[in-house]
Amino acid sequence: MMLRIAVNPSLTSLSIRNPNFRSCISFFSPKPFSLSLILNHRQSINTAGAVAANSITTSPSNLFNVDLQPYLSCCMPNKRLKVAVLLSGGVDSSVALRLLHAAGHSCTAFYLKIWFQEDFENFWNECPWEDDLKYAKAVCDQVDVPLEVVHLTDEYWKNVVSYIIEEYRCGRTPNPDVLCNTRIKFGAFMDAISSMEFDYVASGHYANIVHSFTDQMDKPSVLELSKDMVKDQTYFLSHLSLIQLKRLLFPLGCIPKDEVRRLATKLDLPNRDRKDSQGICFLGKIKFSEFVARHIGEKEGIMLEAETGDFLGEHRGFWFYTIGQRQGLRLPGGPWYVVEKDIKNNVVFVSRNYFSSDKRRRLFRVGSLKWISGEPPEQNSQLQCKVRHGPGFYHCSFTMEPGEDGQEDVAVVQLPEDDQGLAAGQFTAFYQQRSCIGSGVILESWDDQGFPVCEKALEIARMEDKSKLGKPVKIKVRPEKTPPKGSYQTDRERELADSQTAITSQKIPSSKLESTSIFIMNWLQKIREKWLHM
């Protein structure tokens, strides 16, 4: 095996390249180093080029005068471990690194370069991950922690992106963050560093893992809810296996998000003011519609009103829409919601009656089940579940039934109340008290039917020559109705509704009641309108 080794004193970096492989790895040190290496190469991590020359500097004044002992309960502070820390350049993973370092562990930081944005290089002038890597290096420089860059672009395309594209082609709505955690961060990456003999892999996720250190070596580790229920990310971690879970540490599982931000300021982290990342994990600055158009393409189709069959307008392809979607339909007189899709005929059905009491869902099936313990819960178990990321749970009943045509078993889940956002392809995570016990993928069927689409609409959808429909009908505008309680389709809508309920339920002296109520309601309405149009 031929290796090329180059030392760059100005960057204090070492670049090692093996021409036999495409993936690569870079090493960064906060101080100039001498060349003394023992190389144990694996195919999954090779060598890399140097990071951008412009580094971020920080003042050392606040680095070592912060008492971190009260925050180390999720860091195994009484042990001395060798820990691989996933560092993204964001605040959460940076604070996690500092906590593990303060706990006395030997840490090595890893930045995963998984993005294939070269296909979109004309969308901006700067490299989309360059800033992340600059911040990651600056955070490591503060405490002399080495940083390595692992390239997993091919693995990411094969195990995550290609799956997402295929799911959208089939009309489903996949969750890339669940797949990224399972197959890349705690899958391909763990395989890549398996020869480096780390005790644990850590990240900045908001979740808590309870490890057993008794004589019962086979006792499973437990994935528990984090202290911050709003930021809790057990939903995104619910498809991990027990083997993966046993090797993980989540230092932020015992700390609320606002306290993490305060710690970043106290520690004078160079990225303390960076905003949290939003959206799908691999898209960066690219809009989702641009990604879909590039990899799936566009195909003109029609939108029909589900109840009447009226031709309302055209769309660019059913794969741009998901059940329950409200934004981006560009139809007057709304709000309109996507309620069904005809995949074969490329037709999207919409309705203004998405929240009607006779069109709501509480029974659904879940496949591709994975239980962290390796075994499903007992039949007819009373569990809790999440059907999306967020603080909300449902109590649910749970039974198993055989899959069709000899396929794997599926879970039949019954909710005590209706949920409008059940979308095929999304994950459902199951819980027993504070413990996440596993998850699966929501299937297409619930209550043996979807949203009721009238026969006229179905007949029009099957028409081969839709040009005979002529022009779309003129839609009558009607006042927007407030969705019923419990039916909000986004976290923003739900949070605003909860805020409104909390404020209006406060006791106000009668002499100030009328004027204060008017002020509060006007203020809330302005905030809601601005938030929902961001």
What this model shows, in words?
It contains eleven helices and 20 strands. The chain is an alpha+beta fold and 534 residues long. An eight-stranded mixed sheet has the order 1-2-3-6-5-4-7-10, sandwiched between helices. Strands 15-18-17-16-19-20 form a six-stranded antiparallel β-barrel. Strands 12-11-14-13 form a four-stranded mixed sheet, with no helix packed on it. A hairpin with a 7-residue loop joins strand 16 and strand 17. Residues 1-55, 120-126, 485-524 and 528-534 have low confidence and may be disordered.
Specify Rg, calculated over alpha carbons. Answer: 26 Å
Task: List low-confidence stretches.
Answer: 1-55, 120-126, 485-524, 528-534
Mean pLDDT: 77
Termini distance? 53 Å
Alpha-beta classification: alpha+beta
Task: Assign an overall shape.
Answer: globular
Please list the strands of the largest sheet in the order they lie side by side: 1-2-3-6-5-4-7-10
Helix and strand topology:
Layout: E1 4-8, E2 13-17, E3 25-28, E4 82-86, H1 91-102, E5 106-113, H2 130-142, E6 147-151, H3 153-169, H4 176-192, E7 200-202, E8 208-210, E9 222-224, H5 234-237, H6 242-245, E10 248-249, H7 257-266, H8 288-295, E11 301-305, E12 311-315, E13 337-342, E14 347-351, E15 363-371, E16 381-386, E17 394-401, E18 410-414, E19 427-432, E20 435-442, H9 455-461, H10 491-504, H11 510-532
Parallel strand pairs: 4-5, 4-7, 5-6, 7-10, 11-14
Antiparallel strand pairs: 1-2, 2-3, 3-6, 8-9, 9-20, 11-12, 13-14, 15-18, 15-20, 16-17, 16-19, 17-18, 19-20
Helix pairs in contact: 1-7, 3-4, 10-11
